[in-house]
Specification:
By secondary structure, this protein is mainly alpha-helical. Helices cover about 75% and strands about 0% of the residues. The chain is built from nine helices and no strands. Helix 1 crosses helix 2, helix 1 crosses helix 6 and helix 5 packs antiparallel against helix 9. It is elongated.
Length: about 200
């Protein structure tokens, strides 16, 4: 019975760490949030905090997973995958530290197959591409998207625009990420919905 209670406490502490870490990174930024900052905020030493994760890099990946869980639980009120992507990007402007973390890990560290974030991003892109492609194909079936548009390529372009605008936004926060994603989405869907000539 004591072991079960200890296990439950361990799960609760890990959840607390992830919740606090997500908030700290969102507010302070990825580069300005240290393991010590997170440990102090949850009343642990750095070694004590890392007892709950295999490494610092695994902690960063778990923070991104937690962010995805929060985003997936939202009702984005979007009628198509392009609108959904723009809504998520608009929300991302409110959490610059998480955008910084995502860009830093996805564009650099996670491209190494040995990095703990590599598999997370590979799976995330595979799932997102498959889901958006399916939604674009549904739009084709009900006539909202031209049948001769390659839904998978349109998805890849939309994801590239989203990720690219996040990088530009980190350099210049006056750039409206969502506005640019919406522009490309509008052009893509308007062009795609236009009758073939």
């Amino acid at each position: 019975m004591a072991r079960r209670g200890s296990y439950a406490k361990g799960i609760a502490k890990r959840e607390e760490i992830l919740t606090v870490a997500l908030e700290l990174v969102a507010q302070r930024g990825f580069r300005r949030t240290s393991i010590k900052d997170i440990a102090d905020a949850v009343g642990l030493t750095q070694a004590g905090l890392l007892h709950y994760f295999d490494s610092k890099d695994e902690l960063w990946v778990e923070i991104l997973r937690r962010r995805d869980e929060h985003d997936n639980a939202q009702d984005w009120n979007a009628s198509n995958p392009a609108e959904l992507l723009a809504a998520v990007v608009r929300h991302n402007a409110e959490v610059p530290g998480l955008v910084q973390m995502f860009v830093n890990l996805s564009a650099a560290a996670a491209t190494d197959p040995e990095h703990p974030a590599h598999e997370y991003f590979r799976q995330r892109y595979d799932f997102t591409r498959a889901d958006m492609t399916r939604q674009f194909r549904d739009m084709q079936q009900d006539g909202r998207l031209r049948a001769d548009v390659d839904a998978e390529r349109l998805t890849s372009v939309m994801l590239a625009v989203s990720d690219g605008m996040q990088i530009q936004w980190l350099y210049d926060p006056s750039r409206d990420m969502a506005e640019h994603v919406e522009l490309v989405a509008q052009l893509a869907i308007t062009q795609a919905a236009a009758p073939a000539r």
